[in-house]
Amino acid sequence: MFWPRDIPDRVPGLQETLAAWDGCVGQLESYGMSHPTFTLWVYGKGRPTSLKIYCAMPRYIRGPTGWNGCQFTVRAQDAKPLGYLVIRDDSADFEIRCFHIHTEERPPPHWLAPVSAGGHGGEGAAARD
Length: 129
Known about the structure:
There is one protein chain. By secondary structure, the protein is of the alpha+beta class. It has one domain (7-128). The protein contains two helices and nine strands. The protein has helices at 7-19, 122-128; strands at residues 25-32, 37-43, 50-56, 60-62, 66-67, 73-77, 84-89, 94-98, 100-106. The strands form two sheets. A five-stranded antiparallel beta sheet has the order 5-1-2-3-9, covered by helices on one side. The protein has a four-stranded antiparallel beta sheet with strand order 4-8-7-6. Mean pLDDT is 84; it is low at 115-129.
């Protein structure tokens, strides 16, 4: 059985990172073909950043493309011929099985940016236009 040495050890840290985003919006953002990767985007109103979750070498996906109130869990699955990681949100019936998960904090979506004193950006801009 092939396991990169650190994958089982990374699960608690990944779970801690994902738990910090409970209750936010989960959205399937993209799929890259050259290096097969699903990218999930997690964001919430009033948060200074968003979270990108990169699921590399996916082998299975199920669920919606976007939903509110996400509560992700991650676990290592020992299987033959190769083990993999499973990221799930039971409340949305969402699951991806992949060989690697990487997370990265990024700027929030531009439409969630707070409205400045000058009145540009955010939700208020759409109401004025």
